[in-house]
């Protein structure tokens, strides 16, 4: 366990809020967003359901004074993978979003990449080991 820096806790909290808003929108408004972005409704709903659990985990981490370094690193790597995966999805041809959908996917990929970077910086600032 490490003592979480204020920077790390704020980066995690921002990620939790952003992910929570997206989670609720996609989980409960999948059909509306599917029509708006020309993306599969099931993809949006399942993404929203995943993000509910993710936002809860990241929000919980943000609330802790001491965190497991490996768990935070998992969040960082997961965010980086989400960023790459989002762009790969657009390039794969597996979906055919309209311009609004492409912009939304790119915007959330950028935001997720920024969260990964901020969390990594916060993790590096959280070097001291928490006392047991």
Outline the structure in words.
- Keywords: Membrane, Transmembrane, Transmembrane helix.
- The chain crosses the membrane at residues 12-37, 43-63, 70-91, 103-123.
- This is Integral membrane protein.
- The chain is mostly helical.
- The protein has one domain (2-124).
- The chain is built from 5 helices and 2 strands; from the N terminus they run E-H-H-H-E-H-H.
- It has helices at residues 6-28, 30-37, 41-62, 69-92, 99-124; strands spanning 2-3, 66-67.
- The chain has a two-stranded antiparallel ribbon.
- The relative contact order is 0.21.
- The model has no long low-confidence stretch (mean pLDDT 95).
What keywords describe this structure?
membrane, 2 strands, single chain, Integral membrane protein, elongated, mainly alpha, 132 residues, two-stranded antiparallel ribbon
Short précis:
The chain has 5 helices and 2 strands; from the N terminus they run E-H-H-H-E-H-H. It has helices at 6-28, 30-37, 41-62, 69-92, 99-124; strands at 2-3, 66-67. A two-stranded antiparallel ribbon has the order 1-2.
Could you give the topology of this structure?
Elements: E1 2-3, H1 6-28, H2 30-37, H3 41-62, E2 66-67, H4 69-92, H5 99-124
Antiparallel strand pairs: 1-2
Helix pairs in contact: 1-3, 1-5, 2-3, 4-5
């Amino acid at each position: 366990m490490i003592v979480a820096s204020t920077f790390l806790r704020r980066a995690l909290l921002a990620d939790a809020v952003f992910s929570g808003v997206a989670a609720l929108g996609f989980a409960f408004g999948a059909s509306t967003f599917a029509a708006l972005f020309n993306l599969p409704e099931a993809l949006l709903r399942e993404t929203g359901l995943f993000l509910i659990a993710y936002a809860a985990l990241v929000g919980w981490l943000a609330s802790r004074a001491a965190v497991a370094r490996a768990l935070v690193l998992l969040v960082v790597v997961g965010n980086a993978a989400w960023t790459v995966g989002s762009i790969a999805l657009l390039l794969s041809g597996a979906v055919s979003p309209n311009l609004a959908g492409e912009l939304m996917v790119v915007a959330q990929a950028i935001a997720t990449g920024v969260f990964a970077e901020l969390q990594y910086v916060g993790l590096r600032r959280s070097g001291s080991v928490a006392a047991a």
